[in-house]
Specification:
The protein contains three helices and two strands; from the N terminus they run αααββ. It is mainly alpha-helical. Among the domains are: about 70 residues, Methane Monooxygenase Hydroxylase, Chain G, domain 1; about 30 residues, no CATH class. A hairpin with a 6-residue loop joins β1 and β2. The protein starts with a helix and ends in an 82-residue tail after the last strand.
Length: about 190
Amino acid sequence: MDFLKEFSKQFTNVARTVSGAPKENPEAAKLNGDLKAARAALKELYARYGEACFALQEGKGNRDEAEALALRVRATLLQVEELTRRQEANRELKRCLNCGAVFPKEARFCSACGKKLPEEMPKPEPVEAGEYCPGCGAKRENGEARCPVCGAPFEPEAPAEEPPRPAPALEYAGPDVEEPDDTDVE
C-alpha cells in the first residue's frame, strides 16, 4: 500500500511540474518554425550555389543559373534576418547596434563592446503574405515576370534556345586543278 501512496505522490509532483511549465505562445512557435525552415533553405541554397560556382570554374556551368542562385541566397538571407529580428522583438530582446550582441530588454550597455544599447526597439511591422523579389525584396503585385524595382526575374528563367545554325558550305580546300578542255582530246 505504501508503494501506491509513494507512486501517487510522484505522479502528482510530475503533473504539477508539467502543468506549471511555461508554454511558448503560438506566434513564437511559428517564428521558430519559420526561422528553422529558412535556415535549412539557406543551407541548401549555399550548397547548390557552391556546386554551380564549381561547375563554372570547371567550364561546365551556366552563369545565369549561378546568378539566379546568388539572388535567391540574398533573398533568403534577408528573410532569415527579418525573422531573427521579429523573434528578438517577440522575446523582447535588444541587439547592440555596434557589435550585434543580443541582450534582455532591461540591459542598458553591451557587455561585449561597452556601447550604450538603444532604449526601445521598434516593433517590426507585420509582413504581408505573398511573393517577394529575390533581389531587392519588393512585393510581386500582379504576377509580373520581373521585379518592377530592380528588374530581377521572380523565377529563374530557362535559358533561351538558340535557333539552329545552318551547316557551313562545303568548299574544296585542295590544290588548284585545271579542268580538262574538250578540244584537247584526241
